[in-house]
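@channel sequence for tomorrow's demo:
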Amino acid sequence: MIKVVILFSSAVSVYAACDNQCSGHGTCLIDDVCNCYDNWGVGLSLDSGDCSDRICPFELAWVDTPSNDGRFHTYAECSNRGICDRKTGLCDCFDGYEGKACKRTSCPNDCSGHGTCEYIEDLAYKVTWNQYSTSDFRDSAATLPYYGWDKGKTRGCVCDSQYADIDCSKRMCPHGTDVLKVRDNLLVDEKSQIQEIWFAQDKFMKESYNSLVVPAGRSQTFALKFTSRLNESFVTTPIKFDYYNPDSANDFVTDVHLALLQLPHQVIDACTVSFVSGKSRSTTLDPEAFAYGIRIAFTGDAVQGPQNLIEVVDYECGVGCTPRITGLHNLGIRTTTTAIDGYSLLASNVTEYQLSDLNSYECGRRGKCDYKSGLCECFEGYTGENCNTQTTLV
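structure tokens (generated this afternoon):
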């Protein structure tokens, strides 16, 4: 009996169809080759073999060898930015890469706890949208469409306010003008930056190319958003604008002025606001179409030199939203040269009306920034938060 068992065992070992019986991770084909289950194989070549090794996830390769027809960034194990652990089937990513198959970059130092790690397709450019556009308040996005192969792979830090550098590790210091800046003509008063905001309104609101409808209400409210040189963003309390009553211009200007001065931390410590008389947007087609403008001059020490353009928050912000505003209806989708259904249209916009004679440098260019504390270390003979106060004549 023992001889029979030994003989039978020998026959099984001699005539076993597949190596190691496919390690239990595949099926044996008639040609004695294993058909491995998903994510199982052998070695770098990823051949079936005895199906004893795990295969790691594939993603678009960061770098690879182009094919004969010029294709590159094809799928590769661990995206060619990590080593596959054949026992676990997980990628051991190189420094600077993370995620399934090492598919995305990691942000340096995790943005130091002072920022968020964002994909390149989500990174905004400029500080406020109207620094690159003068179209309708709601007609521009904060980002540009990005269609690169790495749009869902490459990431970078978006720092919190008052923090900067590639890993958001440095505190930003106050900015101010250089007190020794030479002016061309000292007989002329220094000029502050003036921003101009035009609210283009129509008697009718355009909702489609085939119909004109009356606005939902009058005396609607909006808000203004100011972003400082330290990337701090503040939104004013609601401001009421009755665009059917231009005689209330003085009240409107006062409301805007107070709203700006009431922003936290005196981020705007002084400014003047003036009303630009309504100008007809059409002399023949629609005599009741007007645009109303205001000019904001930044005159305070905290807002010296060029500032980021103010943003107009004109969408409705209802229950559970802050600040709670009814929204300001702006037609502003065309220029004065274009007419739709007999009504000429003018875009609402924010522009820089007057350049400032002053400048805006870190520590007023008369000190060094302590990036740990965010405080200026002024050179000898200068003092102040941004080193723009001269204590001695040099």
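heads up for whoever presents: The mean pLDDT is 82.
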